[in-house]
């Protein structure tokens, strides 16, 4: 299905037949057919070895068994680019590591069954060739649906996801779904694990084409993989907003938490007065931070306040980039913070420097501020 969805993204899907047959996999031929699944048209790719297709009765009686060394040797001798050879070999190594873990054997003693057959090599090499041809800058995958129940394979009847699949899926977002059956195979999981740089819902993008790859099994859910090709819109940076309500701490005790949070890496922290339950006056403590710092700062909030629970939200944030310029005045050097972005430019003198200069020179902060004649267009250039 991955093979079909990527083939559907080619300007001429039938071009894939020549691509895979020219790769030189022994005995492999391909048929590219336009078919439908749940009344949706898509591409179904049929890979045949010596005229026999995967899943047929003849094929089930003649499995090829290969070790990793054999598979890598076959891939290394193909008429494909070094990038395709590298990608395909790495995908097989992911599968070999899973098989090794499941069967308790060293990787070099693992023998592939279904995934070692020449048609499976064609599947993996074909995907790698299509990724190279389409040349996406980034591949994003939705969470993978595993299904549930049991599946019959060369090793007998196994639970879904099969043990090798489950091993490969470690660290990847998955869900079972509501329909029995095997929705993710070791090969599919390994391909996604190798190529996907991110997981989640479709990013903000303008897509130019959609490819549909059709499966052979029938489920209530349409058995297909859909691939989008397009341009990702520039994403806004995100921050975490952590907050809690406090109505049982004195102002003296709660006052120091702001400094603690800022010193620990918060982007901002604030206290807002509010009226809480039982008509108690209280505070809302809010901390804004980068996602990587959220857990540490949440723990700090729990440790240094009486709160027993926090709220956490992910927020998009418009951010202007900032830099500092040292500006000479009659009262000494003052740092100027210049912020730019979205066609705007702002500047402001650092208040700490204003206060320090006023104390040093025996003048008011306002006098120091009025002595600044900073022109960002003159200092930085007019964009």
Description:
This protein has 383 residues and is an alpha+beta fold. The protein has 3 domains: 2-232, no CATH class; 238-316, Alpha-Beta Plaits (2-Layer Sandwich); 321-380, no CATH class. The chain has 14 helices and 22 strands. It has helices at residues 2-7, 15-21, 57-60, 68-76, 82-103, 118-134, 163-168, 186-195, 251-255, 257-263, 294-304, 351-361, 365-370, 376-380, and strands at 28-37, 40-49, 52-53, 66-67, 111-112, 140-141, 144-145, 147-148, 150-153, 156-159, 174-175, 181-182, 198-199, 205-214, 224-232, 238-246, 268-275, 281-289, 311-316, 321-329, 332-341, 344-349. The strands form 9 sheets. A 4-stranded antiparallel sheet has the order 17-18-16-19, covered by helices on one side. Strands 1-2-3 form a 3-stranded antiparallel sheet. Strands 20-21-22 form a 3-stranded antiparallel sheet, covered by helices on one side. Strand 1 and strand 2 (40-49) form a beta hairpin. The mean pLDDT is 89.
């Amino acid at each position: 299905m991955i093979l079909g969805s990527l083939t559907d993204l080619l300007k001429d899907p039938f071009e894939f037949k020549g691509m895979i047959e020219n790769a030189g996999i022994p005995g492999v031929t391909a048929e590219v057919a336009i078919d439908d699944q749940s009344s949706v048209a898509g591409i179904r790719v049929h890979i045949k070895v010596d005229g026999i297709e995967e899943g047929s009765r003849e094929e089930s009686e003649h499995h090829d068994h290969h070790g990793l060394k054999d598979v890598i040797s076959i891939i290394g001798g193909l008429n494909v680019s070094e990038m395709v050879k590298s990608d395909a070999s790495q995908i097989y190594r992911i599968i070999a590591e899973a098989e090794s873990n499941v069967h308790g054997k060293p990787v070099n003693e693992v023998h592939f069954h279904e995934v070692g057959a020449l048609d499976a090599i064609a599947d993996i090499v074909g995907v790698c060739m299509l990724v190279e041809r389409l040349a996406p800058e980034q591949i994003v995958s939705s969470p993978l649906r595993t299904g549930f129940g049991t599946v019959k394979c060369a090793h007998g009847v196994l639970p879904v996801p099969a043990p090798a699949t489950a091993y490969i899926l470690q660290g990847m977002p998955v869900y079972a779904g509501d329909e029995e059956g095997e929705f993710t195979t070791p090969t599919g999981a390994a391909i996604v694990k190798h190529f996907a740089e991110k997981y989640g819902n479709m990013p903000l993008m303008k897509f130019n084409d959609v490819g549909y790859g059709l499966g052979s099994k029938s489920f209530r859910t349409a058995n297909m993989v859909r691939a989008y090709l397009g341009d990702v819109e520039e994403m806004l940076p995100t921050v975490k907003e952590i907050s809690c309500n406090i109505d049982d701490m004195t102002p003296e005790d709660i006052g120091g938490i702001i400094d603690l949070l800022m010193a620990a890496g918060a982007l901002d922290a604030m206290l807002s007065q509010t009226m809480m339950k039982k008509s108690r006056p209280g505070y809302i403590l809010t901390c804004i931070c980068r996602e990587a710092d959220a857990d540490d700062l949440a723990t700090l909030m729990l440790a240094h306040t009486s709160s027993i629970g926090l709220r956490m939200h992910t927020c998009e944030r418009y951010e202007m980039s900032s830099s500092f310029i040292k500006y000479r005045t009659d009262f000494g050097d003052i740092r100027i913070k210049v912020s730019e972005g979205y066609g705007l430019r702002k500047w402001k003198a650092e208040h700490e420097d204003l206060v320090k200069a006023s104390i040093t020179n025996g003048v008011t902060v306002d006098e120091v501020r009025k002595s600044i004649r900073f022109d960002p267009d003159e200092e930085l250039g007019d964009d």
